[in-house]
Specification:
This protein is of the alpha/beta class. The chain has two helices and eight strands; from the N terminus they run βαββββαβββ. Helix 1 runs antiparallel to helix 2. It comes from Kribbella rubisoli.
Length: about 120
């Protein structure tokens, strides 16, 4: 349904470091860099996740982003990467049967306070 998502950041450098580290195990990398806007893509090279410097005034509201992992091992690898960064882990990797059997995820905060999830459905 969605074609792409863009997240506005207070500190684009910190956001870049966070997302490059957290999304690397998923095969997601920066594929476009316009200085104040970054496009990230998977193996197809088409940027579908964008980061930009926040340009609107006021308070930024928390968003929830969930990235798909091929298996539980990748979720665990992301968890270790988050710990190495020193970022806040909201929920350690575990199965969430209330969503559906096999739903295995880790939840963390990005530098702007957003709730970021990496989930495997296997």
């Amino acid at each position: 349904m969605l074609d792409h998502v863009s997240v506005q950041c207070d500190d684009l450098g910190a956001a870049r470091e966070f997302y490059e580290t957290v999304l690397a195990p998923l095969g997601i990398t920066v594929s476009m860099d316009f200085g104040d806007v970054l496009g990230m893509s998977g193996p197809d090279g088409v940027p579908k996740f964008w980061l930009g410097k926040q340009t609107t005034g006021g308070t930024q509201r928390e968003i929830h982003l969930a990235f798909s992992a091929a298996n539980r091992s990748i979720v665990d690898t992301v968890h270790r990467a988050v710990q190495k960064l020193g970022a806040e882990v909201l929920h350690e990797p575990k199965e969430w049967p209330e969503y559906h059997p096999g739903y295995y995820a880790v939840f963390m905060r990005d530098p702007d306070g957003n709730n970021v999830e990496v989930v495997s459905h296997s």
